[in-house]
Amino acid sequence: MILQGKNAIITGARRGIGRATVEAFASYGANVWACARKADPAFEMDMKAVADKYGVSVWPVYFDVTNETEMKTAVNSIRKLKISIDILVNVAGIADDSTSFQMTSLEKIKHVMAVNFFAVSLLTQYISRLMARQRFGSIINIASIAGLDGAPAQYEYAASKGAIISGTKNLARELASYNVRVNAVAPGMIATDMGNQIDEELKKNILSKVIMNRLGKPEEVADVIAFLASDLSRYMTGQIIRVDGGM
Question: Active-site residue among 28, 126, 155, 157?
Answer without folding.
Answer: 157
